[in-house]
Amino acid sequence: MPRYADIALPVPLDRPFTYAVDGVVPAVGARVLVPFSGQKLMGVVVKVHDDAPPPEIDTKPIQQVLDTEAVLSAELMELANWIAAYYLAPLGEVLRGMLPLMAEVKRDVTYRITEVGQKILYQGAELGSSRRSKLSPEDQNREYAVLNLLEAGEAARPGKIRSATGANKALLEGMVRKKWLVRETVAEQRDARRLEKVAVLVPDARLPKLNDNQMRLLAELAAVGGRMKVADTRGLQLPQTTLGTLVRRGLVSIEEVPESFHLSGVHVPGKKHAHEHTLNPQQKAAADAIIASLDAPPAEFKPTLLYGVTGSGKTAVYFAAMQAALDRGKAAILLVPEIGLTPAMAAQLHAAFGSQVALLHSQLSPDERAEQWHRIRRGEAPVVVGTRSAIFAPAPKLGLILVDEEHDGSYKQEETPRYHARDTAIVRARLNGAAIAIGSATPSLESWHNGQRGKYTLLQMPDRVSNRPLPEVELIDMRAEFQHTGQDALFSRTLLEETRTALDRGEQAIILLNRRGYSFVVMCRSCGEKIECQNCAIAMTYHKHGRADDFDDHAKAGQRLECHYCGFRRTVPSVCPKCQSEHLYYLGAGSQQGEEKLIELFPNARIGRMDRDTVRGRADMERLLTRLHSGEINLLVGTQMIAKGHDIHGVTLVGVVGADFALGLPDFRAAERVFQLLTQVSGRAGRGDKPGRVVVQSYHPDHYAMKFAQQHDYHSFVQKELQYRRWMHYPPFTALANLVIQSDELAQAAGWAAELGRFVEKTPLPKVRIIGPATAPLSRIKKIYRFHFVLKSESRAALAEALRAMLAHAETQQIPRAAIIADVDAVHLM
Q1: CA distance 435 to 296
Q2: How far from each other are the two terminal CA atoms of the chain, in whole angstroms?
Q3: Fold (topology level) of 195-258
Q4: Exposure string for 397-430, b = 16+ CB within 10 A, e = fewer
Q5: What pLDDT is stored for residue 362 in this prediction?
Q6: Beta strand pairing call for 383-386 and 357-360
Q7: Residue 133: per-residue pLDDT
């Protein structure tokens, strides 16, 4: 029997930890609870063996084996190892991201008395008096009460200590800092199943004399097949004692059953679902090609890139491919970039596949995520839809992976492990021998390049469904607009006129204003000072008190300044914090200001807003989309959330305001992002029977990204953009990584960056160009100072070798691993 197990723990260290097997031998891929640095952590077994560690290492035993068998298959473990190696991420943190099962482990904090605390208790107050002088007499008494309570050496939870002594968390933490107490983390397994009570009619029971309420409840139970949720009985407006009386008399029993998961979504009456459409020739050709790859042998594995213009019916192709996978007894995973896209997709999936669908995204509660994960693993839900983490769904017999809007930056994880879900999906499909198709109306340049050179199979759908025309796009030169009007107006005359015309015809309009808040800079006219976040080197956004309508109940917070990076909020100052001037100036317009101006300009319009302030969860999004589909909202203003995936047939006009500001950002992908955003939001117009029109306001109307977006000419844009990328040695012609060094002390971060810079200067790192160290574009985030290196190479192997060399040198210099972020295939260089 193996005596040891190597456990991967969710800590920023690039190695597993060896523990002694004491009893049950865990399987590789199973979860265990182990002691680690005064805590109890959940880890995943990566190896069992008999190789004893060196004698000087005190090998602790595994505290508890949580699973009788592996919860991660061999294929998922192999995928985790690939992610850890490719993205230079600790394996334990990769595995934690794969397992949304934290709800099954209950974590708590306990406090235990130390030897120092025992001395204070036994030898008197003089030992601690110098460190207790700032405490009130009441708190001093509470401290001794805590020490008395814990005298026996047993650990106690904060609630027990508080109820017995009145000591709050701050007091206990103060005693920890004085080393009188030690804080420990306790973890134990818990049942995360969501249960609900069901009233069940007892068959063949003899009916005694009953009153009217009791007879009515029995009748209701009989009418619904003899089973009813206890919660639903409360809606019958009967006394609460009625059910209890029937239970006591043996006529009804109460059972606890797993709570059913309701796949909510946005259903549009009268509108066909994707699976109900008859595929046109180009859709059928695309679907047939993807379905053929389902039956291809693993040796012929090749991803498919589906390029289809907006409104060409890619979703119907996905559904046909998923049905083909189910017909072959295989599972399918569909990834979408934003939670906001799931309500509409969920409704269509439920209509097509019913209870076979599982949903995975971050808006689910921990218990719901665990429940969905287990449904998938048991094979009850062979159709999985979700955001990037859904790529780790434990689907048995996985046959098909689909990645919708594959170009979207949301697929790149911005925390460790910094994987890209699209690329991870391709690797997982290869490991499974599954088919994979990635689709977009504006494919990323990396994917398009792979399609052009034959690495991917390229499928194209150049026409809209039913031969609907692509919308006509008009570019408005805002420089000329200012010269004609003499006013710095938010909306051009053309956009206002087109909006009024669309509303008068009973149609709907969408206006993209891709900034949250009211104004994104508050500046002093006297000294030029910008009001920045105290935690981040970024200007704070002004949020004005907004309307509190039934879908935006978050607008009641009042006027405030907010940092969109760390969430810090403060009141709006009356004077400049630097020079005390009263002349504060609000620059730039966000979606909140856009909504306010549209209310003034179109008082009879039914206006809604879609941004992160109005849509905080799936219920908000569903409510807003339902109002939009029903026509209750006929003018919608919002950020890029409105540009993605929504299919509202009543929208005939799209306006775009200020989207080209991104062309001035220090980002080699700026032109690509602007082109994609314009193309995607333009695609919201004219998806019904009436043709669409798009009005784009721009201060850079001659830029090639603007011109090609106006012409719906993706191919010409790609050709020109790839030319620039080749000249400047940027992806897709090179591999790229961003190495960030960070610390909460500026001098320390600068020193660590300088040390790595000296290493790079004197160490041969062939085939890799390294730029830096330099201050990161966002030099401080959440009180953390940041410097970075940008690495480029035509060889991925050389790039990985250089990164590992830098990380190894950092370790020799005792630079903490948590202070270094290695972002391979970085999407943002901020």
Answers
A1: 8
A2: 51
A3: Arc Repressor Mutant, subunit A (1.10.10)
A4: ebbbbbbbbbbbebbbbeebbbbbbbbbbbbbbb
A5: 76
A6: parallel
A7: 57
Q: Where are the domains of the chain?
A: 4-101, 108-189, 195-258, 274-467, 468-516+590-731, 519-588, 735-824
681: helix, coil or strand? helix
Q: Please list the rounded mean pLDDT of every run of 10 residues in the chain (830 residues).
A: 92 92 91 86 93 86 89 95 96 91 73 90 60 73 91 89 91 90 76 76 85 89 87 83 90 81 58 72 96 94 96 94 96 88 74 88 80 90 93 96 96 94 98 97 97 97 92 95 91 97 96 91 92 92 63 50 91 90 90 94 95 81 86 93 83 94 89 96 91 95 96 97 96 97 97 97 95 94 96 96 97 95 92
Q: Dihedrals φ, ψ of 560, to 5°?
A: -160, 160
Q: Which of 135, 178, 181 is closest to 157 using CA atoms?
A: 181
CATH level 2 (architecture), domain 735-824: 2-Layer Sandwich (3.30)
Label residues 202-228 b or e (16+ Cβ within 10 Å = b).
Answer: eeeeeeeebeebbeebbebbeeeeeeb
678 token code pair:
């314009």
Token couple for 726: 């080749």
* Cα 78 from Cα 85, distance rounded (Å): 11
C-alpha distances in angstroms, 344 versus 228, 268, 316, 331, 614? 29, 9, 13, 21, 18
Whole-number Å distance between alpha carbons of 436 and 434: 7
Amino acid present at 114: T
Q: Which residues pair with 513 in a beta bridge?
A: 657
CA 616 to chain centre: 12
Q: 686 and 510 in contact (C-beta within 8 Å)?
A: no
Domain 274-467 sits in CATH at: 3.40.50.300
53: DSSP letter: P
Element (H, E) at 693: strand 693-698
Short-list 549, 692, 682, 658, CA closest to 609 = 549
Closest to 795 measured CA to CA, from 710, 743, 733, 744: 733
From 176, 146, 179, 175, select the one nearest 163 (Cα to Cα).
146
Two structure tokens written together for 197: 């009570």
How far does Cα 379 stand from its chain's mean position? 25
Closest of 640, 684, 695, 680 to residue 662, by C-alpha: 640
Give the separation between CA 830 and CA 823, rounded to whole angstroms: 11
Cβ-proximal residues to 192 (8 Å cutoff; 6+ apart), any chain: 101, 103, 104, 366, 367, 370, 371
CA nearest 113: which of 164, 152, 167, 166? 152
Which residues have CB under 8 Å from 612's CB, separation 6+? 516, 639, 641
* pLDDT reported for residue 548: 37
CATH superfamily placement of domain 4-101: PriA, 3(prime) DNA-binding domain (3.40.1440.60)
Query: In CATH, which of 3.40.190.10, 3.40.50.300, 1.10.3720.10, 3.40.50.150 is domain 468-516+590-731?
Result: 3.40.50.300
Please indicate whether the domains covering 274-467 and 468-516+590-731 agree at the CATH topology level.
yes
State the greatest distance between any 2 C-alpha atoms of the chain, in Å, as a whole number: 95
Burial state string for 282-304 with b = 16 or more CB within 10 A and e = fewer than 16: bbeebbbbbbebbeeeeeebebb
pTM for this prediction:
0.85
DSSP E strands: which ranges in 478-570?
508-513, 521-524, 541-543, 560-562, 569-570
Q: What is the pLDDT of residue 236?
A: 83
Nearest one of 551, 557, 575, 560 to 518, comparing CA atoms: 560
Distance of alpha carbon 753 from alpha carbon 755, whole angstroms = 5
* Cα radius of gyration (the chain): 30
* Ramachandran angles phi, psi of 471, nearest 5°: -65, 150
Amino acid identity of residue 409, one-letter, is G
